[in-house]
Amino acid sequence: MTDRTLRMRRVRRFVPGSRTRRGPRGAQPKVVALGGGHGLSASLTALRRITGDLTAVVTVADDGGSSGRLRDELGVLPPGDLRKALAALCGDDDWGQTWARVIQHRFTSEGELHEHAVGNLLIVALWEQLGDHVSALDLVGKLLGAHGRVLPMSAVPLELQALVRGHDADRPDELSTVRGQATVALTPGEVQSVHVVPEDPPAVPEAVAAVLDADWVVLGPGSWFSSVIPHLLVPELLEALQETKARRVLSLNLAPQPGETDGFSPQRHLEVLARHAPKLALDVVLADEAAVPDRESLTEAAKRLGGTVELAPVAALDGSPKHDPELLAAAYDRIFRMHGRIGPWR
What we know:
Elements: H1 3-14, E1 30-35, H2 37-47, E2 53-58, H3 65-74, H4 80-88, H5 94-104, H6 118-130, H7 133-144, E3 149-152, E4 159-165, E5 175-179, H8 181-185, E6 190-197, H9 205-213, E7 216-219, H10 224-228, H11 235-243, E8 247-251, H12 266-276, E9 284-288, H13 295-304, E10 308-312, H14 325-338
Parallel strand pairs: 1-2, 1-7, 2-3, 7-8, 8-9, 9-10
Antiparallel strand pairs: 4-5, 4-6
Helix pairs in contact: 1-14, 2-4, 2-14, 4-5, 6-7, 9-11, 12-13
């Protein structure tokens, strides 16, 4: 048995079921997690194990698959990443797991319903019925018994645009603008920067309020240019992230993403983040200890952003580039305990 396996088993024992230890009875940290897709789902699945006061703020730039079709046909926010966040907040009991499977279920047919997710249709139907994004998502969360709240980061659907070097393989040095989250995520070129259209999108007020009221804000993991950085491109949300008294944790990916961040070192992820939001400070950068070949460079990059580095075994034991929810929960819990607490829950 390797030392790494032993460490991970000790961490697993540290995480007691669905909630970890806290301070005074009933006290718990207010945590806001920002991102989208599978990265945010991993973070939420871990965080719901250690706090019941959890809010997800989700990107709304998706333009592919079922979400893209609904967005094009009905002019709505893309519901896919919101659906995934709600599924991740479902409990581990039969009710929660049944509903998680239901809303993630995709139809298979030769007609218009093919590949549409049940949860996407449910969310859009409630948007049309209630005329309010937040109320509808709160109602879906209540139906699912979700352990937290899900909010869109902006009140309007966004188009992600990226400046990419070598998007055309025949012109490897040429800079071009690539449009659409799905295309940006799969570009074979090197992404230089991203922005959103409209350039000054309105933030959802409840999302801004949640960030300002939080004890901890968690950014990442996830697709760096298409799920993580877009939150920094909504001016009101970025201002809240800069002004909040909450401590900020940046959770790094386990491996570069093919296309979007091919060849990126852990410290380069931080440098790219800083270019898009030069005034944003961090308190902690969390990374898997096995995914950081140059700890000194990562430490220096984190220091330039005002933060320290926490290395922990957070990867799945099967070797896939996925976070293990219990190990990630233990890492977050340790950070929350060891790096100072804000509010009555300490």
